[in-house]
Write a structure and sequence with these properties.
By secondary structure, the protein is of the alpha/beta class. The protein has 15 helices and 8 strands. The longest helix is centred in the first third of the chain and has 14 residues.
Length: about 290
């Protein structure tokens, strides 16, 4: 799926990060969501590589990256630590400043990276999310029913891990096929990769720890930012699926403006898609990324 790209492993902050790189031009870090890996960018990467040097990592706990056992307080899966992984990766590749386009969980890592390392990020684009703290503090019955895995995965180990590992394909189809598009956005190759990931017990644990951190230590960090007035300090572009849950339950443009320094523009709008934008409408995704960056 990534012909001509180079695969390598780079040591981050306590975890080895698997990275695929390719293309030429300004550096662009692409971060994936749950329950995926760098594979989610396979429909857009070849064309984007004509204009950008692409860096496509698997987040800690996902894909072919390391999956350390979660700490008692889930701190080793905090978005602060996962963001540091990405800074380490980009530094190892020689990129001190770069753009980021990020979907879903990767967007939460990107948000933390932009706040903790503002000198690194020149532009930020987020796909189909509102800020983590906003989403938890404004949880409604509709959101809880639609995003049930947010509340299932944060249960103490090994409860969700045990259930997912008992029927990984049943779980995967339920998770990624819940939207109006069903499984149509996913090629056979991508689906096989996602099934392989979620059939691995250590990956399932890493994914659960990502969510456990989001519902605990990440909220502490986000509240501390809010109290101290720390915000995103770069231009931000947000797109979200007009057929998705974020569209129904939140106000992404307004939500992101609240956590971005007022000196920087925040643009965005819904696009004709569900949650998995890069795989459902790849040509539109390429256009949005190319135009913004």
């Amino acid at each position: 799926m990534f012909e001509g790209f180079i695969s390598r492993d780079i040591m981050g902050s306590g975890a080895g990060i698997h990275v695929v790189t390719g293309g030429s031009g300004p550096p662009l870090l692409l971060l994936h969501g749950y329950p995926q890996s760098h594979v989610m960018w396979h429909k857009v990467a070849p064309q984007l590589a004509q204009d950008f040097t692409l860096v496509l990592p698997d987040l800690r706990g996902y894909g072919a990256s390391d999956k350390p056992k979660g700490a008692v307080d889930h701190s080793n899966y905090s978005k602060r630590v996962m963001a540091q992984d990405m800074v380490d990766v980009m530094d190892a590749l020689g990129f001190g400043q770069f753009g980021i386009a990020a979907h879903d969980r990767g967007g939460r890592v990107a948000h933390r990276l932009a706040v903790d390392h503002p000198h690194c990020v020149n532009k930020l684009m987020l796909l189909d999310i509102s800020p983590t703290l906003t989403m938890y503090e404004h949880t409604s019955m509709e959101f809880a029913r639609a995003y049930w895995w947010w509340f299932f995965l944060i249960q103490p180990a090994p409860f969700p891990e045990t259930l997912i590992c008992a029927q990984p394909e049943l779980y995967l189809k339920k998770k990624i096929g819940y939207g109006t598009a069903g499984l149509a956005p996913f090629t056979d190759e991508a689906y096989a990769a996602y099934l392989r990931h979620i059939s691995d017990a250590s990956t399932v644990h890493g994914m659960c720890e990502d969510y456990r951190a989001a519902a605990s230590i990440d909220l502490e960090h986000d509240r501390a930012d809010r109290d101290a007035g720390r915000r995103i300090k770069c231009p931000l572009h947000v797109i979200w699926g007009e057929h998705g849950v974020v569209q129904r339950c939140f106000k992404p443009l307004e939500d992101w403006r609240k956590v971005t320094d007022e000196r920087f523009a925040v643009t965005g709008y819904p696009v004709p898609s569900g949650h998995y934008i890069a795989e459902q409408i790849p040509e539109r995704t390429i256009g949005e990324i190319t135009q913004f960056f």
